[in-house]
Amino acid sequence: MQLDDLLRLLDALRLRKARALLYFLLADRTPVHRTEKVTDLFWQNSDEHKAAASYRQAVKHIRRAMEGFPGFGLETNAGEVALRLPQSFALQEELAARLARPDWDPEQADRIRLLVDQTVQLEGISASFDSWLAITRANLLAALRQVLDRRLAETADNPGGGPRALAEFAIALEPSNESATRLLMRLDWRAGHSTRAIERYNALYAHLDEAFDQEPEAETVELLAAIKLDPTGGGRQRPQGDRAPQVGLSVSLLPAEGEGGALESMTNVLFADLRMRMARFREWSITEESAVPAQVRVTLQPFYLMGALRFFVEVKRGAGGQLVWSEWIEQPQTDWEYKVRILLSNIANALSVVVSDRSLADSGSGIYDRWLKAQALLDRWSPETEAEALAILREITEESPRFGAAHAELAGALNVRHVLLPGTYQTEDLKRDAMHHAIVAVSADPLDTRAHRVLAWCFCHLGYFDLAEFHFDQALTLNRNNPLTLASCALGFAFAGDLGKAADLAAETRRHAEVMEPFHQIYLAAVDYLCGDYAATARQCENRGGLMPTVGGWHSAALWRLGETEAAARRFDAYLADLRGQWHGQAEATDAQRLDWFLSVFPLRREEWRQELRETLEQASAARLRFLV
């Protein structure tokens, strides 16, 4: 299939949603899509009848346009839609392959750019589709950049026009491509155009500053300095040696000294934030000690003294443990943004690593510190801390509407508060409130895994399971290595009815057992139950009743399904007693009402599963009369 044909076909579609639908079917990895998911994705703000009519109109429009393109087809049957192409075709691989050909030319580059531009031109149809476009564009650019970087490396010493045209194309695709910018700066310098080389640096600096709030890499800054020191010496420039490899760091939290109480949650949050920040720098590579011996070890030890928190930070050489640098951080829970910037700069100086201070820019107005505090409050959850955390997050979203992380955290808290407060229920207003903040989070940062995961759960609670699955898939695409993402998506797909995918994700989660949190086991316990593995559910719920107010229900049901009737009856009786102690519903609630609450918590797509679970637990409840008299 020729790119010209594809571009002409897209251009022939005058209906914008028809073009978006064709591009989605062309670029998405899934060969067949459910019609319900497609209509939810493109017409999620329309009522069912209007969405169905618009979908049919778009399909007819695409089919009419395809009449002039033999071999193209759009199949719609049994509630599914699929795009049939003249030959096996994958857009990303096809564009990368064409870019890698020796006969590549600027005209073909224009065709590739036009297809990439579709990911920008089609924005605005829906928040979910916009996020898909952003992820698709990022993946496509990454694939093209890999080919371009290889070709540029192969032709870097060629003084002809080939490398220049490739580099110009690379920057047109991604203005942040520093390797291409450096190549053009060198070529301009050698040609005696040092002013043009400096202009290229300035354009790169402005783009990085505006888009990413960071400065160019050290190698680019060094090249600029060399050009300024010797503007006419480009032809005599010595070949630059390879950059030093990344410094491999291990970052660990040591056991605390003293009793921390409520400060322990704050400690965990601050440590996670420090580790995340350290992983952002190109010069540092965060490694797991078990996998690759670290060249440098960074340790953080909390000290809880008289209700106050202090951190002791050490940097040691990997071999022999030689101390390089150490520091005390007083009261890190206050003004953390400022203190962590100083900490990272000191670590970098100790390692003789160049660090851009601008990349650690202040979030302003203490917003970041308050967001961290809200996270810590939610981490050590109680009704009182939850209320304070929600109030903080709402203040942040009002003061800084584009701070997506706060919107995602708030939406996530609203999604689970009815689970953590037995006897409470999600109202439609709460569901819509959570949805609003989740959509803002995804819009603010379409590449944020957590935002997509939270939005997926919002769609689950509202009953839009196809859109939920779509965003669970986006979360997995963005970060499949995170155990929480895997466990949460496994549970989400289970509730949405895709038990095969849920089971595969659960198995993948277990391969990260060494870094799994205990509550991940409860997610997997529910997945195992819905998949019919009741023994696994029972094992994972054993002695974990304090992790979540729903554990006892799954445990009792699993035991009953295993035929352990007495154990199931006793476990359910203990579970009801636990609920009475945690109850936040009406004071005179009956055990039947407590069971109603448990069954209402889970957004199950298939109501027959909820009914089967009810019947199982009612049988376990009735059996208490036989075993507990």
Distance between the ends = 76 Å
Query: How confident overall, as mean pLDDT?
Result: 83
Shape: globular
Strand content: 5-15%
Q: Uncertain regions: pLDDT < 50 for 5+ in a row? A: 237-245, 353-365
Count of extended strands: 8
Provide the CATH top-level class of the domain at 480-629: Mainly Alpha
Number of helices: 27
Q: Look at the helices and sheets and give the structural class.
A: alpha/beta
CATH overall fold name of the domain at 480-629:
Serine Threonine Protein Phosphatase 5, Tetratricopeptide repeat
CATH homologous superfamily label of the domain at 480-629: Tetratricopeptide repeat domain
Q: What is the helical fraction, as a range of percent?
A: 55-70%
What CATH architecture label of the domain at 480-629 applies?
A: Alpha Horseshoe
Q: How are the strands of the largest sheet arranged?
A: 5-4-6-7-8
Notes on the structure:
It is a single chain. With 629 residues, the protein is an alpha/beta fold. Among the domains are: 247-337, Putative neuraminyllactose-binding hemagglutinin homolog like domain (Double Stranded RNA Binding Domain); 363-474, Alpha Horseshoe (Serine Threonine Protein Phosphatase 5, Tetratricopeptide repeat); 480-629, Tetratricopeptide repeat domain (Serine Threonine Protein Phosphatase 5, Tetratricopeptide repeat), CATH 1.25.40. It has 27 helices and eight strands. It has helices spanning 3-12, 16-27, 35-42, 48-66, 91-100, 106-121, 127-155, 161-173, 178-190, 194-212, 218-229, 263-278, 336-350, 367-379, 383-399, 404-420, 428-444, 449-462, 465-478, 483-496, 499-510, 518-530, 534-541, 551-561, 565-582, 591-600, 607-627; strands at 32-34, 73-77, 80-84, 247-253, 284-286, 296-305, 308-317, 323-330. Strands 5-4-6-7-8 form a five-stranded mixed β-sheet, covered by helices on one side. A hairpin with a 5-residue loop joins strand 7 and strand 8 (323-330). The longest helix has 29 residues, at 127-155. 36% of the residues are buried. Mean pLDDT is 83; it is low at 237-245 and 353-365.
